[in-house]
Structures are given as C-alpha cells and as structure tokens.
Design goal:
The chain has 319 residues and is mostly helical. The protein has one domain: MetI-like (MetI-like fold). Helix content is 77%, strand content 0%. It has 14 helices and no strands. The chain has helices at 2-34, 40-45, 51-60, 67-79, 93-128, 133-146, 150-164, 180-214, 217-224, 229-240, 242-253, 255-266, 272-282, 285-313. The longest helix is centred in the middle third of the chain and has 36 residues, at 93-128.
Length: 319
Amino acid sequence: MLLSYSTSILVLQRLAIALLTLVIVSFAVFFATELLPGDVAQILLGQAATPEAVAGLREAMGLNQPAFLRFLGWLAGLLHGDFGISYVNNMPVADLIGDRLVNSLRLAGVTTLVSVPVSLCLGIGAAMWRGSLFDRIVTVLTISVISVPEFMVATLAVLIFAVWLGWLPALSYGADVSSFSAMLKAYAMPVISLSFVVCAQMIRMTRAAVIDTINTPYVEMALLKGARRSRMVLRHALPNALGPIANAIALSLSYLVGGVIIVETIFNYPGVAKLMVDAVATRDLPLIQSCAMIFCVSYLSLITLADLMAILSNPRLRK
C-alpha cells in the first residue's frame, strides 16, 4: 500500500510539473510573438494608411492594452477553448486550424505506423546479435542518420526521388488518399524524411533497453540452462523491457513535433506547421500563438507520457 501511495504521489508531482511547465511555455510563446518586428495594424492597412487609421485599428484589435493584460485574456480564452480571431482572415482561429490539424495528425500517424515496427525490429535484432556485423551496421547507420538534420534529409529525398529518379512528386498536398498508390505518392516523401530521425533515435533506445534487460541475472540463467538466444530475448528479456521500450517510443515520437515543422514547409504539406509559417509572414499573432501552443502541448504530453512510463515500469525510479 505504501508503494502504491508513493507512486501515486510521484505521478501527481510529474503532472503538476507538466502543468506548470505549460503555463511557463504559454508565457514564453505569447511574449516571443510580441517581439516579432513590425506593427500588425500597419501591415494590415498598408504603408499608405494614415496614423489615425492605424491607431483606430490598434484600439479595435485591443493592441493598445498592456501586454500582460492581453496575455491574461488570451490565456483565459485558451482555457475555455477560444483561440481568438485571426487578424488576417477575420475568422476564428479554431476554424483555420481544424482541417490543418487533421492533416498533421494523419502525417504523424502514418509516420508512427512506419517507424515504430521498423525501429523495434532493428533495435531488438541489434540487441539480440550484439557485436555482430548486423549490430555494427545498424549502429553506424543510426549514428549517421542522427547526425543529419531533418531539412538535409528532406532536401536529399527531393533530389533523389523527385528530381533524379522522378518517382515521387516534390510537393505533398495529402489530399488524394482514394487508393494505396495515391496515398503512397502523397505521404512517401514527408514520411521518409520524418522516419529517418525518429527511427534512428528509437532503434538506439530500444537496443539499449533490451541489452540492459539481457544483462540481468535471471536472463543469464536462462542462457546457462541452454535456452536459445532468440528464445532468451523474446520470452525472457523482451516482456520485462516493454516498459523502457514504450518509454523510448514516446520519447522518440516527440521528435516528430520539431521535425514536422521543417518537413511540412519543404514539401508544402497543408498542416499546422505550414499554417504557422505562413502566419509568421503576415504577423497573424493569434494564429501563430495557437499553432505554437499546439506543438508545445503535443511535445510536453509525449515527454510527460514517457516520464510516467519510466516511473511505472522501473521500481527504482519510484523511490
């Protein structure tokens, strides 16, 4: 009972830290967008607008209020599900984000379906045959991929598959998913670019988790009793490594949040990241802030989930 109580307290502490972090991040997001150069009212009205017209628009949009009061109003709106009104489109931000968010989630889902099985197979295989040629090849490839940023992978993918070979389109609109071939053409390039870094991180963490479990005394005892290495890993080591592996998956998928911004911009994919980049060009502050908070909440949720998985799967972390 004491262990269960202490674990519950630890989980609640992690959730409280996550909420506090989210408040701090919202403060940073709001005031970082306030530092963007240019006057929003002046940009909307154009250079020929009179100072009186600019001042009137600033008053109508509430931009003449102190920044801290506008932050409190914006934060209160977020808590009630109100993302505000877009300055440029004069539409609710939630309506602008709705379809784009579905596209981004679809891209993240397809990337997850591709990267997780591949990473688990390669990571578990590298741990099973540790020190072999296969393990060395996988290790060298993962280190090489981790060293290459997402924009370089995306650029190389465009040059190879779109320019030189002509197999896939350079832009991905993600609209035509009526058949498997159409979906493959629409998502192949972004998914390849995102999966490279995600798979590399996941393979290394999965390999480390399985090897750490293989080195435990009960697994070594199974090997001494004559169990085959494959049986030792799959029947004895892998079930006890599921907690760390799930933690590795959640932690690795958090890299999707940063990578999707670059990939959607390069391939002109109609997701939330592309919408935020376009909003920065027009100084549409409510839209920028809402998109940034979506990415922050996604990243923080995955990190918190990974932290909770690590606590629940490892008794040593509960003390």
